[in-house]
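Case study 2.
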Amino acid sequence: MGKQYRADYKLAFHEGSATFNHESIDSRDLWWSVNSDGTLVVIIPFMVNRHGLTRNDVIQKFGDRIARLMEMHGCR
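Prediction:
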Protein backbone atom coordinates (compact mmCIF):
# COMPACT_ATOMS: atom_id res chain seq x y z
CA MET A 1 0.00 0.00 0.00
CA GLY A 2 1.04 3.59 -0.51
CA LYS A 3 1.45 4.09 3.22
CA GLN A 4 4.72 2.16 3.20
CA TYR A 5 6.11 5.00 1.07
CA ARG A 6 5.12 7.65 3.63
CA ALA A 7 8.76 8.51 4.43
CA ASP A 8 9.49 8.95 0.72
CA TYR A 9 6.49 11.26 0.28
CA LYS A 10 7.62 13.24 3.30
CA LEU A 11 11.11 13.71 1.82
CA ALA A 12 9.68 14.73 -1.54
CA PHE A 13 6.84 17.03 -0.47
CA HIS A 14 7.37 18.07 3.15
CA GLU A 15 9.82 19.30 5.76
CA GLY A 16 11.86 16.81 7.76
CA SER A 17 10.23 17.69 11.08
CA ALA A 18 6.68 17.46 9.75
CA THR A 19 4.15 14.96 10.99
CA PHE A 20 1.20 13.44 9.18
CA ASN A 21 -2.29 13.17 10.62
CA HIS A 22 -3.78 9.69 10.44
CA GLU A 23 -7.40 8.74 9.86
CA SER A 24 -9.05 5.41 9.21
CA ILE A 25 -11.85 5.15 6.67
CA ASP A 26 -13.45 1.71 6.38
CA SER A 27 -10.33 0.13 7.93
CA ARG A 28 -8.09 1.81 5.36
CA ASP A 29 -5.46 4.44 6.21
CA LEU A 30 -5.51 8.05 5.08
CA TRP A 31 -2.51 10.20 6.04
CA TRP A 32 -2.45 13.96 5.47
CA SER A 33 -0.56 17.12 6.31
CA VAL A 34 -0.11 20.68 5.03
CA ASN A 35 3.44 21.63 4.05
CA SER A 36 5.14 25.02 4.48
CA ASP A 37 3.93 26.10 1.02
CA GLY A 38 0.33 25.52 2.13
CA THR A 39 -0.03 22.44 -0.05
CA LEU A 40 -2.21 19.63 1.23
CA VAL A 41 -0.26 16.36 1.04
CA VAL A 42 -2.49 13.27 1.20
CA ILE A 43 -1.36 9.64 1.17
CA ILE A 44 -3.98 7.03 0.34
CA PRO A 45 -3.87 3.28 -0.29
CA PHE A 46 -3.14 2.02 -3.77
CA MET A 47 -6.15 0.92 -5.80
CA VAL A 48 -4.90 -2.56 -6.64
CA ASN A 49 -5.52 -5.15 -3.93
CA ARG A 50 -7.97 -6.17 -1.21
CA HIS A 51 -6.35 -3.74 1.25
CA GLY A 52 -6.57 -0.85 -1.19
CA LEU A 53 -9.31 1.30 -2.61
CA THR A 54 -11.18 -1.25 -4.67
CA ARG A 55 -14.84 -0.44 -4.01
CA ASN A 56 -16.67 2.59 -5.34
CA ASP A 57 -18.19 3.44 -1.95
CA VAL A 58 -14.76 3.51 -0.27
CA ILE A 59 -13.27 5.58 -3.10
CA GLN A 60 -16.16 8.03 -2.66
CA LYS A 61 -15.56 8.27 1.11
CA PHE A 62 -11.87 9.04 0.55
CA GLY A 63 -12.77 11.64 -2.08
CA ASP A 64 -15.31 13.27 0.24
CA ARG A 65 -12.78 13.43 3.08
CA ILE A 66 -10.08 14.91 0.85
CA ALA A 67 -12.57 17.52 -0.42
CA ARG A 68 -13.38 18.49 3.20
CA LEU A 69 -9.65 18.75 4.01
CA MET A 70 -9.18 20.99 0.98
CA GLU A 71 -12.00 23.26 2.15
CA MET A 72 -10.61 23.37 5.70
CA HIS A 73 -7.14 24.37 4.50
CA GLY A 74 -8.11 26.77 1.74
CA CYS A 75 -7.21 24.52 -1.18
CA ARG A 76 -9.13 24.63 -4.44
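The helical segments are 6-13, 56-72.
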